[in-house]
């Protein structure tokens, strides 16, 4: 399993020159979860809004199961959050007929229960509209240049899957490719899914990067997606409004999440996408054989409510909202060259 995969991806506005450091302290990276619904206050599932510092989501879920004396299967959450950060997110615990617990006794210095309520069903993965990020940049070499890049980023960045998807040194991707080629076996279902997802995400990133190597203009047969929606439609060359709608950030071009079935992308755009992935036909066939269906994902990501605060000559605080499934690292890489104090450079 020593396959090498290209890691260089194109930028939307050219490679940034300024550098900065993130994650020197947990409070330098804060994430607040935006749940897709409001717990209704009644039911057998207790919903807990928890702030955690320097702890990963799975570990907190296990501690919660122990505290409530239930199986870990009875604990739910909507998304996994960074460990080296201060994050706020919801958890659910199935506790039918149980007396209320004293939630202030759960956790400690690194975990605090901020709210407790009830709901009728378990919290499931993906039950989010997105997350709010507050990221402090330290040791910024050119604060003015970073602020200028933030203005560009308001117009969108490549919607790349971030390094978290591929694992340390791309380990998830390497294992996923080996699984598809029959060179590696994984018995744990969730790990197998994670490795296969890394392969699919890699192929998507390659198409997006190739698209950003040239002007982002629609081709015949392109598929576009409405901003804030998964609704897609095929580009109509007779529609004179498409260019304006792209510039106004109302719609976005898309790239394939590879799988079986006929792509809704056709003509010139389809042939172009196939050409970009020609070197990975074995991986494409493997994803199809696994039963994954062909899907589309927007190739442009819009950070919402982007704010920049200059805290010192060499220190900035960035705040922005991202939709579910998006990566803050994809925004940061367009703003400056980032060094992660916890692990080295992105």
Average predicted confidence as pLDDT = 94
Q: Looking at the structure, what is the overall shape? A: globular
According to CATH, the homologous superfamily of the domain at 157-301 is TruD, insertion domain
Look up the CATH topology of the domain at 157-301. Answer: Pseudouridine synthase
- CATH class of the domain at 157-301 reads Alpha Beta
**Range of strand content:** 25-35%
What is the CA–CA distance across the termini?
Answer: 23 Å
The succession of helices and strands, N to C, reads EEEHEEEEHEHHHEEHEHHEEEEHEE
- Secondary structure class reads alpha+beta
Query: From the coordinates shown, what is the CATH architecture of the domain at 157-301?
Result: 2-Layer Sandwich
Largest sheet: 8 strands, mixed
Brief digest:
The chain has 346 residues and is an alpha+beta fold. The protein is 27% helix and 28% strand.
Descriptive notes:
- There is one protein chain.
- Among the domains are: 37-125, Pseudouridine synthase; 157-301, TruD, insertion domain (Pseudouridine synthase).
- Strands 2, 3, 4, 5, 6, 7, 14 and 15 form an eight-stranded mixed beta sheet that branches.
- It has helices at residues 57-68, 143-153, 163-166, 171-180, 189-212, 242-247, 267-276, 281-289, 328-335; strands at residues 19-22, 29-35, 45-53, 75-77, 86-94, 111-119, 128-137, 157-158, 223-226, 232-234, 251-257, 295-298, 300-301, 304-312, 315-323, 337-340, 344-345.
- The protein is built from nine helices and 17 strands.
- The chain starts with 18 loop residues before the first strand and ends with a strand.
- It is α+β, with helices and mostly antiparallel strands.
- The chain is 27% helix and 28% strand.
- The radius of gyration is 22 Å and the shape is globular.
- Helix 4 packs across helix 5.
